[in-house]
Amino acid sequence: MELSPAPAGRWADLPEDIALAVASRLQEADVCALGGCSRSWRATCDADCVWERLFRCRWPAAAAEAAPASRVQGWKALYINQHRRMDVAISNVVEFVGSSLNNGWLESECYLKAIADLALMDDIGFLDVKFFLFSRNHSAIINLIGLHYSIASLHVLLKSVRHSKLAK
């Protein structure tokens, strides 16, 4: 089997503004994956404008407060730090529920406390719920708490249902 010839141009030859436009339209995991493809893509994917958009989309309320710090740390570092803070905060809720389940029970009080604890967290959004609560590694109750929180506090499913009804 004969290999096809290499394309005339290279990805590294792509103009910077076009490469940034491509990277700026991706989600977090895709930006990280693309950045692992080559040095030129890594430089593009590490650009502040890419991570600023990701930060602002995921945590819009925190973005205004983070803007002054972005000049010192950069948006990628701020994004990583905020992601870690969300991970720690939501992990505490998961551990609380897990300890109740390990005792062989989960009362409605514990379930409602988990929902309330999530609601008290500043700027938790659907992507945070998706990252940290919707997982095959978690019990069904943790997934249910994420779903309940998304419906009650974020109105995620209600908006989707309304939107699909309007589209018909």
Automatic annotation (TrEMBL):
Domain of life: Eukaryota
GO terms under biological process: protein polyubiquitination; SCF-dependent proteasomal ubiquitin-dependent protein catabolic process
Database matches in Pfam families: F-box-like
InterPro entries: F-box-like_dom_sf (IPR036047), F-box_dom (IPR001810), FBXO4 (IPR039588)
Start and end residues of each F-box domain: 14-54
Classification via SMART domains: FBOX
GO cellular component, as recorded: SCF ubiquitin ligase complex
Protein name per Swiss-Prot or TrEMBL: F-box domain-containing protein
Source organism (scientific name): Panicum hallii var. hallii
